[in-house]
Every structure is written in C-alpha cells, then in structure tokens.
Amino acid sequence: MTETTQPPKTVEALFDEGVERYQKGESVQTLIPFFKQICDRAKRNSPAWTCLAWLQLLADKPYAAFKSAQKAVKLNPEDAQARVNLAIAMLETHQKGVRDQVELLQQMMMVPELKQEVEDNFQDGLKRKPDWNSLKKVRSWILE
C-alpha cells in the first residue's frame, strides 16, 4: 500500500481557511492560535497580522492587539483596517497618538472601496461584540 502525503498548505491557503472559519462563526479563541501560526510562518504578512489584531481585540486582549496592529501598520501603512485596529487598541490601552491614526483614516475614507470595507468590518465587530465602545468611538470619528 502506498501512502500519499499532502504537501503542506501554503500561507495563502491557511489565511483563506482562517478567514472562512471566521466568517462561519468559529470562536476567536480557536482562531487566535491559528492566525499566530500564520504570522509565525510569514512574519511579513500584513493581512495576517491585521486579522490577528482584530481577533485579539474581539477577545479583549488589547495589549496583544496593539503589538499585532503595530506590526501590520509597519508592514503596510496604507492598510485602513490595520490602522483601525491600531486606533482601537491604542484607545483600549490608553496610548497616545490616536488622533494621528484617526486623521490618517479620515483621509483614507475618501476612497469609496476602503470606506465600504471598513464600514463592513465595523458592522461585523458590533455584531460580535455589541458593547464595543472603542470601536464605536473610532467609527464615529472616521465615518461621521
């Protein structure tokens, strides 16, 4: 009998799998270690760091989220969601510089596609965590 082994999944395939699991409603507690593994395998993968920060924020881990969001923004300064995550984490950890992030986000919201993506993520966040005051503040600052 010949055993066939599957080649290891690519980082992109793992990332897509993680996003799909999130969208299906899997708990953030199980997804955080999954995305940490992706970030460990691909340390320069900004979208993975952005997702990890979001999950950490949902799990009430703002200090971990702050570090993950900082990494995501450093890797891709034009990623609006990474900056949203950073602004929320900064609020929740009482960091200085939130206004700078908000001002950059306000400029980014001039792009309709970015604005829609960020708004969709705000809606998702409020569905999953209805009393998320930091998210509500950042949302009002950049969208209203």
UniProtKB/TrEMBL annotation:
This is TPR repeat-containing protein.
